[in-house]
Amino acid sequence: MRTTTNFLFLQSAFTLIMIKRTVFLLLLTIPAYLVAGQDAPRPTQTVQLLVPQLDSTPNIDGSLSEWKDLAFTDGIWDIYRLRHTFWYDDGRRNRLTDHGNEPHPEDDLQARYYVAWDAEHLYFGAEVKDNANDVDAPGQEPRAWYLRDSICFFVEAPRDEAPEYFGQGDNAFCFVADASRPDYAAWWRHGTAEERYVEEPIPSDAVSYAFQFNPWGTGEADFVLEARVRMAPTLGASDPRWTPPHVGDVYGLEIVHCDPDGGPYGGHFMIYGTGDDDATWGRMVLTGAQAPIERRAE
Ligand SMILES: [Ca+2]
Ligand SMILES: [Ca+2]
Ligand SMILES: [Ca+2]
Ligand SMILES: [Ca+2]
Fold first, then answer.
1. Distances (CA, A) of 255 to 5, 16, 115, 258, 275
2. Which of 96, 114, 222, 235 shows its CA 20 to 30 Å from the CA of 257?
3. Ligand at shortest distance from the CA of 213
4. Ligand 3 centre from 185 Cα, in Å?
């Protein structure tokens, strides 16, 4: 009898321990889930992007003509192209949204993006065709670039293999396509050695940017973005391991293009990654100068 009682007692104790362990493990996974937010599952691969150095300094005036042939670009992005990438999430976040009376999807949003670097700066450019300019987000925080027409370049420098969510070394340089240039039009979300998700305007002495709207006479919401960000006061502030750039250095890169067009959250292109998880971002290799594409003689 005593043996049976002991056995039942041990069995109950074991069950209790297992329940406690399960609850403990569940509690452990909740912060991980919250940190992961709405990110799609991590793909098993990343892209490599060769980003060239510029030998001469562009003039930041809203025209990319002097450097676009010398920069990294991989052509036009629209929802059809995104649909065939390995990081596409079946339209969950990589998506366009319907506000009634929409044009064909390629006319809702398409863009070419340009990235380059020199000894002191990162350069970002974009040529965008969009059906509606929407930079109103009433009652929203200045940091809410994702609720306004904007292009955000996510950069980890130096890139590492640790999955982080705007921790040390992670930066987002976000440009809101607002012709009135509010203080938040050039935004910096970043981490530091101690903090995550620090939100502030890019320091004014660290950024220069220009928009040109309706550059081709094809639509008021079309625009060109040209921007330059100084690396030392931004990348250097987010990661003490950052050192001035050299050919062969590897940074992380993701591009997030937001297109609310009247909705609260709206359309998103997420390119080279799945969101805030920097382990999904592309491997941006700093290369030497690049020769422009040349046509061959007949
Ligand atoms: Ca220019
Ligand atoms: Ca649009
Ligand atoms: Ca990382
Ligand atoms: Ca738009």
1. 64, 48, 10, 10, 9
2. 235
3. 4
4. 26
State CA 201 to chain mean position distance: 16
The 8 Å CB, 24+ separation contacts for 245-250 are: 245/117, 245/119, 245/286, 246/286, 247/53, 247/286, 247/287, 247/288, 248/285, 248/286, 249/157, 249/158, 249/285, 249/286, 250/158, 250/159, 250/283, 250/284, 250/285, 250/286
Ligand number with the minimum distance to the CA of 57: 1
Cβ(172)–Cβ(152) below 8 Å: yes
Q: Residue 49 has which token pair?
A: 């992007």
How many angstroms is it from 265 CA to the middle of ligand 4? 11
State which fold the 43-287 domain adopts: Immunoglobulin-like (2.60.40)
Q: What local confidence, expressed as pLDDT, does residue 264 receive?
A: 80
> Quick one: 15 exposed, middle or buried, by C-beta within 10 A (0-12, 13-18, 19+)?
exposed
Looking from the CA of 205 toward its CB, the CA atoms found within 13 Å total 2
Q: Give the residue among 248, 247, 246, 267 at the shortest CA–CA distance from 256.
A: 267
Of 209, 170, 211, 208, whose CA–CA distance to 189 is shortest?
170
171-190 residue pLDDT tens:
999 999 999 999 999 999 99
Helix (H, G, I), strand (E, B) or coil at 46: coil
- Is the predicted pLDDT of residue 199 greater than 70, yes or no? yes
Tokens linked to 67? 């450097």
pTM: 0.87
The candidate with the shortest Cα–Cα distance to 112, out of 19, 225, 193, 206, is 225
The whole-angstrom separation of Cα 198 and Cα 138 is 22
Cis peptide before 52, with omega less than 30 degrees from 0?
A: no
- Nearest ligand to the CA of 227 is 1
Q: How many residues does the chain have?
A: 298
How many whole angstroms separate alpha carbon 294 and alpha carbon 86? 31
